[in-house]
Amino acid sequence: MAHDEWRTAFHITPPTGWLNDPNGLCQRDGTYHVYHQWRPAWPDSPECVWGHATSRDLAHWEHRGCAIPVTLPEEEGGVWSGSAYLAEGAPMRVYYTANRKFRDRDDYDYVTTGRTACQVTATSEDGLSFSDKRVLLRNEDYPEEMSLHVRDPKVWDQDGSMHMLLGARTRGDVGVAMVWDSEDGLSWRHRLTVRPDEPVGYMWECPDRVALGGSEFLLCCPQGLPSLPDRWQNHDNSGYFPLDGRLLDCVGVRAADFVELDRGFDFYAPQTFVDESGRTLMLAWMSEPTPPHECVPDGFGLYHCLTVPRVLSLGDDGLIRQLPAPELDLLHEGRLEAEGGVLRASDHAADVRLEGVSGDLRVTLDGALRLEVAGGVARLSFLDGPDGVGAGRVERTCPVGDVRDLRLLVDRSAVELFLDGGSRAFATRWFPAARELAVEVAGEVADIEAWEMGNGIGW
To answer: pTM higher than 0.85 for the full model?
Structure first.
């Protein structure tokens, strides 16, 4: 593979081929399982399966290959996104969408004709391989108002029953989320449909329920939002609706309440889970489905990565905060000291923390990628233009209040930034040309700590 210096050191990537949505996130018997969409033979074959990575500490990962291959006729178009369900004394159970498109006619619109989207379950004793596949829901089982776009089941327990979220596109091209109930995880009945008071995109992908400090949130990925100067700057976006009560009782959300989870160039399809210590963790696909910028430059054979695991918490304002899992500190190596106001790391892998920020702030990487906070706006921009190390990425902005701290993770071709205790986040890919990482900090900062990061990816 060309450009080995861009292979990430602690962001999950596939050994080969194309990665997208994280799926089936869970922890069982101390082991973290991250499944993901995977096209191992890309670009020679587009077949999509579930890949699988495991870890005991969220910092060091081992890739286990293909966990769920294509075996059913309903999966002809791929084994797509879904979630894991764990019950004590029972095998691991996953739920996912099997996709199929028909090519026998040229007048299909693939919204109301020409495709199927079935919800499938499978079980595993060891989390490594799955059997006992069973189709649970087909398009004819969904409410009549739904188009053929229904997918991405998220399953959880509440009030002594199992519940499933499904993202959908109505025949009127409005994104919604359906809630389903079950006693046994096999037979499902429609409970309610969560609708916006005005359209928030034409399709909601990857729905999720998050409970933090007594509050519940509906996460989703709306497709089709218009790009505006201060929000929705990606082609497709990820965010959440704070709920007034429980999702199980919710019949509507306010479009004006939608909050984006990440304001960078590369963030989509987040999924959460609660680990054995009770923390809510989230990972996302560190890319975009159809970006105007390049996913990767020519000569780089790995397509995409996931974000680091982020710990979610509830802020004083009732909104979600997100910060890197503290286990990433296990990868700290030598400390970095500023020389002439610049931090340098030989391997483009570093963890930089700024505390006690006062006033405007400017952080510049390799003279090419800059985060600037001034005038109530945070701006992430590539200084060398669309043909530079951003591979077509140019600028993302979002409004902010006073920023008091900043966390910066640089992992070769992946960068994640967290502002003001995780109230704002920016994720982006870049493909640096410099031989070493140079981080220049300009502004009033009380304390800077920085470390080089070691390798946690074992393939």
So the answer is: yes
